[in-house]
Amino acid sequence: MRYRQMQGDIERVLFGGAAIHKLLDEMAAQITADYPKRELTVIAILTGSLMFMSDLLRRIPLLLKLDCLSVASYHGKTQTSSEVIFKQLDVPNVAGRDLLILDDILESGHTLAAIRKKLETAKPHSIQVCVLLSKRKQRVLGYGLDFIERYRNLPYLGVLRKELLEQPHQ
């Protein structure tokens, strides 16, 4: 198996690839129904949402524009802080547009609230948020979610072995 080296670090799989793809099909159908005959602007939050965004957008048969925002809220830690740093100076030009913010996880809500507030200053027509997972445990990773910038490329969502959280980060 391609992921054998990382497999040993995983305690259990929460959602396999088939379950994720079924969820993406359902999400895409809902988004398509929510924006009939309207052009949608998707704002993907980097880096965690890349896998999610890529797979989800290919399922949405609407005209859409894509932009990305890069923010930092973890600052090298395993849990998000209340300080959100925007890594780019300007927000995308979204005045009068219907926005859909895509992110991999909802943990505390601080990051998404800061992003939403920043995008509201650009006067969009509407803003909605779509997240893949509500994260209650810091040990969830894979499919874009990371632990110290690793494991994003796993094709499933899994739980990291607890003892690996306690090891010094390299």
Explain the overall architecture.
There is one protein chain. With 170 residues, this protein is an alpha/beta fold. Helix content is 26%, strand content 28%. The chain contains 5 helices and 8 strands; from the N terminus they run H-E-H-E-H-E-E-E-H-E-E-E-H. The chain has helices at residues 4-7, 17-34, 50-57, 110-120, 162-165; strands at residues 10-15, 40-46, 64-72, 85-86, 98-106, 126-134, 140-141, 157-160. The strands form 2 sheets. The protein has a 5-stranded mixed β-sheet with strand order 4-3-2-5-6. A 3-stranded antiparallel β-sheet has the order 1-8-7. Helix 2 crosses helix 3.
- Total beta strand runs: 8
* Multimerization state: single chain
User: Largest sheet, order of strands side by side?
Assistant: 4-3-2-5-6
Order of SSEs? HEHEHEEEHEEEH
User: Average pLDDT, to the nearest integer?
Assistant: 86
Q: Tell me about the biggest sheet?
A: 5 strands, mixed
Task: Find the structural class using helix and strand composition.
Answer: alpha/beta
Strand content: 25-35%
Number of helices: 5
Instruction: Specify the overall morphology.
Output: globular
Give the low-confidence spans: none
Proportion in helices: 25-40%
Distance between the termini: 25 Å
* C-alpha-based Rg, rounded: 17 Å
Q: Short summary of the structure?
A:
The protein has 170 residues and is an alpha/beta fold. It is built from 5 helices and 8 strands. The chain has helices spanning 4-7, 17-34, 50-57, 110-120, 162-165, and strands at residues 10-15, 40-46, 64-72, 85-86, 98-106, 126-134, 140-141, 157-160.
